[in-house]
Sequence to fold (377 residues):
Amino acid sequence: MTDVRETVSVDTSSEPFLHTLFHSDQGGHEQVVLCQDRASGLKAVIALHSTALGPALGGTRFHAYADERNPEEAAVRDALNLARGMSYKNAMAGLDHGGGKAVIIGDPEKIKSEELLLAYGRFVASLGGRYVTACDVGTYVQDMDVVARECRWTTGRSPENGGAGDSSVLTAFGVYQGMRASAQRLWGAPTLSGRTVGVAGVGKVGHHLVEHLLEDGARVLITDVREASVRRVLDAHPEVVAVADTDALIRTEGLDVYAPCALGGALNDATVPVLTARAVCGAANNQLAHPGVEKDLDDRGILYAPDYVVNSGGVIQVADELHGFDFARAKAKASKIFDTTLSIFDRAQADGIPPAAASDRLAEQRMAQAAAREMAG
Fold:
């Protein structure tokens, strides 16, 4: 799969087998675990990018990688990118957690089972608390309840099982705060009232974001590959306008803000040149398809609110769960995403760099300071 310096394998007839891979060339990741349980059909990747600030915290993605020739390779690449993003996200959210992410390979509609989730929980538990998991694309609160039966380092559980419930609620709230900060920077007021916002992806997070925008007086356009998701929004809010696809959305004249809320890579060499919006602020992870896209946005005068900053409301919520969940406390912390986003815009202007680069610098400073304190004893 990837260049590996050391491999430790455990394989017995009664237990799943596990490989622990230590990478020196994949963005500084501390550990990558490949998990397979033959009985349940589980194949998964757990990537730990950094534990400098504390145990790695990040969700579990359940995805088929159907268009990839090598789904295992694609899953490792995705987990590495997502885990790195979680390190930066947790650092900028002010959490005492490093970054990690897990990917279960396969179509959740076809292979997800209680047996598979329990096997996955055993793998997470085998890391002894170095990784704390939660929900992500393809996994839900009820799944985390199952995983938690085998692993106490599980968040995003249902309230009746001691958890915080659906983390998409505060994820959407945080994105809205980042969007308010973007409006403050561009138009001088922290509101989307009278603005046109295009939301690409109205699933778990996107449909909550639409609610915030409508309450604020925005005109909202939506698109989603799932017709049922679009229909749910339109049935509740007939004033919302559905467009054919993301390509049509980003080319819409008069679009003020584009909110990518589906999978990553939304900002790339094909989309940035035709994007009509003045700002980009959305819930999707890893929106920048490759290094340099942030400069392309900056060169076009498009304000980019770094994805891992504005979508950190969910991880703030699940982190709070570890201390006995209090929704008001978690929401108050998520509301600070507004101030954090403004501070990034200020730093970017002062340093003459794009906001994504400014955010990276701030996150790296916090992680480096934590590592230095640990080395000093």
User: Anything to note?
Assistant: Confidence is low (pLDDT under 50) at residues 1-25. Residues 6-83+98-161 form a domain with the Rossmann fold fold (CATH 3.40.50.10860). Residues 124 and 151 are 7 Å apart (CA to CA).
